[in-house]
Input
Amino acid sequence: SSSQQKPLYLCSPFVESALVKGNFKTIVMLPKYVDIMEWVAVNIFDFYTNLNEFYGVITEFCTQHHCPTMAAGPTLNYTWINQERKSVQLAAPYYIDYVMTWVENLINDESVFPTKSNQEFHNSFPSTVKHVYRQLLRVFAHIYHAHYPQILHLRSEPHFNSLFAHFLAFGREYELLEMKDVRGSSSSPVGIGALYEKWREMGILEG
Amino acid sequence: SSGSARKADYVYFDRTTAGFSDDAVPKAKGAQLKLEHFYNVAVTAAVERNARRVDLERRLQADGSTSEERKARHLQQLGRKESTFLRLRRTKLGLDDFRTVKVIGKGAFGEVRLVQKKDTGKIYALKSLHKEEMLKKEQLAHVRAERDVLAEADSPWVVQLFYSFQDPINLYLVMEFLPGGDLMTMLIKYDTFSEDVTRFYIAECVLAIQAVHDLGFIHRDIKPDNILIDKDGHIKLSDFGLSTGFHKQHDSNYYQKLLDSSNGVQSPTVATQSSRNSVMVNSINLTMTSKDQIATWKANRRKLAYSTVGTPDYIAPEIFMQKGYGKECDWWSLGAIMFECLIGYPPFCSENTHDTYKKIMQWPQYLLFPNDVHLSREAEDLVRRLITSADRRLTIDQLKQHPFFYGVDWETIRQIESPFIPRLRSMTDTSYFPTDELEQVPEELSQEGGNSSKDLAFLGYTFKRFSVSSHAF
Ligand SMILES: Nc1ncnc2c1ncn2[C@@H]1O[C@H](COP(=O)(O)OP(=O)(O)OP(=O)(O)O)[C@@H](O)[C@H]1O
Output
């Protein structure tokens, strides 16, 4: 049947399900006079924290057995660049564990995410954040592709959808989001690419 | 049509949590609650931030005398403040960031410590509240109330809260440290105050209570322990909706039992007996000099302050009746405190809380002024107009006009010299606190153990003050 081909997250009523109604603009826009670095930093911090909560909920299903690859579409598996700069296939739980540990360490690194009052952001902060954003996007993509039924069983789809829509809106606003990362290539499309388009049609995301 | 398009897309999904581990559902619920809280806060913060900016922009626009350049600087300054505030949100403050100098107070759920923030060297009072104890006693609503009031208030009459955080065991409030101790300690030291001194403290309390009421809150448990003294000898109120007097009593079952035992069983014969009882108590008051009364009261006072049951001595009768109450209840408490300042013990003090409770309920019989203490007519009259039924109690305007306050300048009282100015040798001088009596308390707080499901109940507790003033972290 058609529902078999179509992922659940694209189907009604789940695709419309949202915790936060309306436009994300109020909470995405840079507040006037505020330092953009601080704004991006605290938001990335929050995205990481909130995503981690939800990943924690479905982690019992994200096992080496269930998810032998970091899949985000029928023909797409992300690869991890290891220390020898080789791209390797990792089971999703390992991949995600690497990502989350790496991000956590960055966030706790005073020279990357400064918290002391006289400490400035490093010039490389924007590019670091872009890397972080890209990896977090992959975690979202994997959860949508591989674990959406579990999200539904746990009645968490309004929450998870809103978190992701907010994440996308934020990425657009601060040019952290690369369209190619959302869509993937024609031979291996990213599942969430279709979701992105759908939300745009529905007006949940802007242009 | 779009209706049929929708239909084509529509799927039915059978939800089940079979196959999930036992903690999956609570964990999911937890994640959902946290996210809901997150978005609520995010929206509120955006609205408030916007209001601060619009407010400043408006004020600057209306100000003709300031140069454009200076105005721009003002706006940039606001931006810096807001940015620092955002940074504070990423800052994880924990117990590790503070060093205990001394335990300075004890309450029902934990202690109050004088602490120093390790990196800045700044001094604060750190209050810890034991989560499990609070859950047992259903104190959640109260914590929220305390957090909210302290957080919102920016009044010289209210103790400032800068920060709060939690670990699996405790909640923590980081407050400004008031080095002068509290009114309870002062009363233990001096027995009674002269009418002039009493006038000063009670007048300041009137303004402080008014400030709390103006914030839209009822304190409900004003007592000498919660009246703190700042470095200049002026008072500030702490502890909103979270005081020993209230913990146990707040439990409605507890009150109901008390009510039953005092009224419910009252057959006509018991009623006559109870009036005989009052005679007996009267005679105690007469035979015991007020000096003896003071001594007994003082001997027990601290124990009462530290116990979970606490002292109901200052609580208005209508609160016990559970039929609703208004801000008048705070003026009753003030009357009881004023009585204590002048006489040396609160008007309904008894051997045990149950008797105190009974006396409060039958206050017309038990409000007695001892013969061996001389009070001015005005003082006695004011007490009687506060310790009276709620509908007869003086209102704030009537209070300020009362002859007892003759000569009080309500506008400037906080600026005039206080009758007792603490003599402090250093920033961390704790000589105004009963630190010897608190020695049993371990110096360092432990933070091991606990389970995280408790944390959810305290969701939203963590607070960071938007104040990047001199006191910021
Ligand atoms: N900000 C402060 N500065 C100095 N001392 C304080 C401060 N806050 C509290 N104390 C001291 O600690 C004592 C206990 O504080 P507090 O009454 O807030 O504790 P508590 O745990 O809430 O007790 P309770 O709930 O029974 O009132 C006070 O009586 C006072 O002596």
